[in-house]
Amino acid sequence: MKKVILLGILIAATLSGCKSTPYKVNLAKEKLTTNRISEIDSVIKQDEIEVKVPVSDSSAAGAQFGLIGAIITSSIDSSVNQSNAELYDQVINPVKDSLVNYNFNKHFNQKLSHNLSSEPIFNQSKIHDMKSEDNHELLEKQVLKLNTRYTYSSDFRTLIVSTSAIIEDTSTVETSVLYQNTFTYNSKRLLESVLYESKGEKLIAERKAKYFQLTKKQRKSSTEVNKLNKDLKKIRRQYSEADKLNKYAVQWSNNNGELTKNELIKATDAIHNMLIIDINKENRPEEYETADKFTYNGKKYAVTLLKESENKSRAILQKTVGYSAGQLCSIPLENLDEFNIASCVN
């Protein structure tokens, strides 16, 4: 059995609550020596898909998550998280097995070559498929570096693919950044075939109500108490977190991971599309905060609607506040909800 360990990703308040220089750097076209990028280093370190795991950390504010296979920190409640990790490791194994012969790296980079071929600065680029940035020993003067990660959300209902892009110039003594941004793709969220939590709570309430309809003498009977506890235990087991996650895992892994593969294909195209859009977009940092805020259910979010897809199925949102201002996120419109919006904002 694989060893399972976790990394608690602590969310720094300074990144979300304070004014800061945006992560995004507009492309400095005037500094491109040949007006082209000759090399692209595409780094995908993963050998298989991952899942975000809830991390218990009483010392930190906000939701915390880790990834199976990362390193556990001393501040994390290791006993609780070890149990979480074992649960998620068990759930994701069938999905990993369904993708065992699927080479996401190869697919991502073949599509990358095709999708960027129409963009003048990339139409002669040579793509290097890499597991680590250290693998490329050539000291290119100007190179686009892509770093991609793909995971399932902690509720196992969404596949998320994220790529950071940076163009570096190493021709000077100190490496300079000519361009930088991050792009995220959220898949369509799986529908809940059964509302596990609400249905479970309803059945528990009904069973308790039935118990309290008994006479006082009957309620004191060990036979009735044991029957109640047995029924409640059965309901909780039936609508447990493990059962819920397994239901979603089956959907992702059916037919040799067909759904997962299809979403990875869509994510690849969406991320390349966002890169092409963004590389030519030169809005200044102060423009982010003045952009129209996206509204959902009467609540305004710190993102702006940048573009809808031609078939109106997806939208590209751009973050407008703080360090992450300027980053792009592609989400499905057909099941637009606070989860998808919040995942773009945070």
Question: What does this protein look like?
Answer:
Helix content is 37%, strand content 21%. With 346 residues, it is of the alpha/beta class. It has two domains: 13-193 and 240-345, no CATH class; 196-238, no CATH class. It is elongated. Mean pLDDT is 79; it is low at 1-18, 58-63 and 68-77.
Give descriptors for this structure.
elongated, 346 residues, 21% strand, single chain, ten-stranded mixed sheet, alpha/beta, disordered N terminus, 9 helices
Strand-and-helix sequence, N→C? Answer: HEEEHHEEEEHHHHHEEEEEH
Total number of helical segments? 9
Query: How would you state the average pLDDT, rounded?
Result: 79
Percent strand equals 15-25%
Q: Kindly, what is the distance between the CA atoms of the first and last residues, rounded to a whole number of angstroms?
A: 34 Å
* Assembly type: single chain
- Which descriptor suits the 3D outline? elongated
Specify the helix fraction band.
Answer: 25-40%
- How many domains comprise the coordinates? 2
Segments where pLDDT lies below 50 for 5+ residues? 1-18, 58-63, 68-77
Largest sheet, in brief, is: 10 strands, mixed
